[in-house]
């Protein structure tokens, strides 16, 4: 097998931990000796042992002289766990194949240097693109210190997210809706505007087995969220932030009593400053957010430049209706050349529906 083929196995292993490692990366590792995989592992959960140590522990024979394939550069620092480079040297691993350099300033190339200086043969950049994509969130968050925001919506073939009556249950089929719940597990936070709470009274939880709920973030400039909404009444069970520019002390106190955390954010025009909010949420350790609308918030998020990725679920239906809402509302752009551009298409078939994904082009 080639280095790329072994690395692919490590990438797949890493994905087992999706949603459990944030704000740490997902990492997979395998040990190969005489062409045979003798150990494999992945970083299973934030704070727990790293992929390399798990692979070494799982070895069916002595890893001395083996090759280690690991999706991310081995760490050389003491974090919640001791350096992986120590484990590599102690076990006399002969060669290390690295997917991508760790962007963490505590490591960023120093793990590779340390191993080379100690006489280990190191190859860097095998399946680099895949390994970087695997941790798009981690790469973004460690650099920007703000969450990676992915906008998600479900629409008909004619671009409607509801009928003209406002009814949107349901646009897509069951398989696509289950996929959305996987995203709610993968992303650490989920964000909607107050309008969506007023209209749908959603729970914004994750209803799949062996998953966790995202932290809920409601953008509510003027504190319109009803005290008896499902978000507020479940705020003691599921972490909930209300981001507001309101100074209404009584309303804030009422929400706090129900378990909501209030973040005060300055206004930018008529709505809250989303970049300011992202900074605050980044400081609180939130590395990723699934943005589920509605159209007003989606527009503001695009306009303020906080969106990195777009998931569009498309159902084979047509609703029509001049007043039926679309995924992105607001004022919109004036001329086609002002469009927000998307790149790196990915298409997945989900039953009769399609999921079309893109990254947002940043200048
Ligand atoms: C690795 N292998 O499997 C992972 C790495 O606090 P700690 O000890 O868990 O360290 C977290 C940092 O280590 C994290 O920010 C990232 O730079 C790196 N993650 N490194 O060698 C792994 N998960
Ligand atoms: Zn490590």
- Gyration radius over CA: 23 Å
Spatial sequence of strands, sheet with the most strands = 10-9-8-7-13-6-14-16-15
Largest sheet, strands/sense/barrel: 9 strands, mixed
**CATH topology heading of the largest domain:** Dihydrofolate Reductase, subunit A
- What's the number of structural domains? 2
The CATH superfamily of the largest domain bears the name Dihydrofolate Reductase, subunit A
**Which structural class fits the helix and strand makeup?**
alpha/beta
Dominant shape: elongated
Strand content is 25-35%
Q: What do the pLDDT scores average to?
A: 97
Q: Report how far the terminal alpha carbons are from each other.
A: 40 Å
Molecules bound to protein = ligand AOF, zinc ion
Domain CMP/dCMP-type deaminase: 1-123
Binding site for Zn(2+): 50, 75, 84
Function: Converts 2,5-diamino-6-(ribosylamino)-4(3h)-pyrimidinone 5'-phosphate into 5-amino-6-(ribosylamino)-2,4(1h,3h)-pyrimidinedione 5'-phosphate.
Binding site for substrate: 168, 184, 204, 207, 292
Itemize the secondary structure elements and their pairings.
Elements: H1 3-15, E1 28-33, E2 36-42, H2 51-57, E3 67-72, H3 84-90, E4 95-100, H4 110-117, E5 121-124, H5 128-134, H6 136-144, E6 148-156, H7 174-186, E7 189-193, H8 194-200, E8 215-219, H9 230-233, E9 240-244, H10 249-257, E10 261-264, E11 267-268, E12 271-272, H11 274-283, E13 288-291, H12 295-303, E14 307-315, E15 342-350, E16 353-360
The structure holds ligand AOF and zinc ion.
């Amino acid at each position: 097998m080639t280095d790329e083929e072994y690395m692919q196995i490590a990438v797949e292993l890493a994905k087992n931990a999706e949603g459990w490692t944030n704000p740490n990366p997902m990492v997979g590792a395998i040990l190969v000796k005489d062409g045979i995989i003798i150990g494999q592992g992945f970083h299973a959960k934030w704070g727990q042992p790293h992929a390399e140590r798990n692979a070494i522990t799982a070895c069916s024979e002595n890893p001395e002289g083996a090759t280690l394939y690991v999706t991310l550069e081995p760490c050389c620092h003491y974090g919640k766990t001791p350096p992986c480079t120590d484990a590599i040297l102690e076990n006399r691993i002969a060669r290390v194949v690295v997917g991508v350099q760790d962007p963490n300033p505590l490591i960023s190339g120093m793990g590779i240097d340390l191993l080379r200086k100690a006489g280990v043969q190191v190859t860097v950049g095998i399946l680099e693109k895949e390994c970087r994509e695997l941790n798009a969130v981690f790469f973004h968050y460690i650099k920007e210190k703000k969450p990676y925001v992915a906008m998600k919506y479900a629409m008909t073939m004619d671009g409607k997210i509801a009928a003209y009556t406002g009814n949107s249950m349901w646009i897509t089929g069951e398989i696509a809706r289950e996929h959305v719940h996987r995203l709610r597990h993968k992303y650490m936070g989920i964000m909607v505007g107050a309008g969506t709470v007023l209209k749908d009274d959603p729970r914004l939880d994750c209803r799949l087995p062996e998953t966790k709920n995202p932290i809920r973030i409601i953008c509510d400039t003027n504190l319109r969220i009803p005290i008896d909404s499902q978000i507020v009444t479940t705020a003691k069970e599921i972490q909930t932030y209300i981001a507001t520019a309101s100074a209404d002390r009584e309303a804030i106190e009422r929400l706090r009593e129900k378990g909501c955390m209030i973040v005060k954010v300055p206004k930018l025009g008529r709505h809250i400053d989303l970049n300011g909010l992202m900074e605050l949420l980044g400081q609180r350790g939130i590395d990723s957010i699934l943005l589920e609308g509605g159209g007003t918030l989606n527009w503001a998020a695009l306009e303020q430049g906080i969106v990195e990725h777009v998931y569009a679920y498309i159902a084979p239906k047509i609703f029509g209706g001049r007043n039926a809402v679309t995924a992105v509302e607001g004022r919109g752009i004036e001329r086609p050349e002002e469009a927000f551009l998307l790149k790196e298409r990915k298409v997945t078939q989900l039953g009769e529906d399609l999921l079309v994904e893109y990254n947002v082009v940043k200048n």
